[in-house]
Design goal:
Length: 210
């Protein structure tokens, strides 16, 4: 039911963050587009079935008027990039939303090449979700248009997201995900609630911590 769709990294400057990832980790990124509703823009690090989303507020007036935009501005305050959220692909999105009392909302983003991406999401900008808990998505586009499939060339042989280290209440996370979340590669420990790190799988069977 659940798989990791993408990990969200809050950044203060999209181009600068993309350059840093390429220089430090050999990961290439591509321009994503903008989300007018939240005043945000993104860059995509494609990883096949998953991806890393670099996201920043690009319209301060709009961003500062939304809870999501304000959270992103706080996360990237001082120019530091921080893990912001984990998004799970959910084959039964409406069922999950009803169980958790979340609203399912449609979203769109137009890529620089003019292709429109469409999805339904639950929890991304919802007060019922604590920020360290995953939100949920169902893509309404063909599989080849999933952002993780965007053509690019990394300097390393990266195969996807291997695991995510999360600090928070393990019982709260289990309650949030239900039994469908038991197989997810989450390393959860007590501590100040946050996404601590994301491990990427490499082609040689090893992992690199991001």
């Amino acid at each position: 039911m659940y798989t990791i769709d993408h990990a969200v990294l809050a950044v203060s400057d999209l181009d600068r963050a993309g350059e840093r990832l390429h220089r430090d980790l050999g990961l290439a990124s591509v321009p994503g587009g903008v989300h007018p509703r939240w005043g945000t823009g993104n860059r995509i690090v494609p990883l096949g079935d998953s991806y890393i989303e670099l996201i920043a507020v690009v319209d301060h007036d709009v961003g500062s008027s939304t809870s999501l935009g304000r959270a992103l501005l706080a996360s990237s305050d001082g120019g530091r990039d921080r893990w912001f959220a984990i998004c799970l692909s959910d084959t039964e999105l409406e069922v999950t939303a009803r169980r958790l009392g979340l609203q399912v909302e449609a979203g769109t983003r137009t890529r620089p090449d003019g292709v429109e991406l469409r999805w339904r999401g639950a929890g991304i900008d919802d007060g019922a979700r604590d920020s360290w808990l995953p939100f949920f998505i169902a893509w309404d586009v063909p599989a080849e248009l999933h952002p993780g499939r965007t053509a690019t060339r990394h300097e390393v042989d990266v195969a996807g997201i291997a695991s995510v280290e999360i600090a928070g209440d393990p019982a709260r996370l289990r309650e949030w995900l239900g039994p469908e979340g038991d197989g997810l590669p989450f390393d959860v420990s007590d501590g100040y609630p946050q996404i601590r790190a994301v491990d990427l799988s490499l082609g040689d069977g090893t992992t690199v911590r991001f």
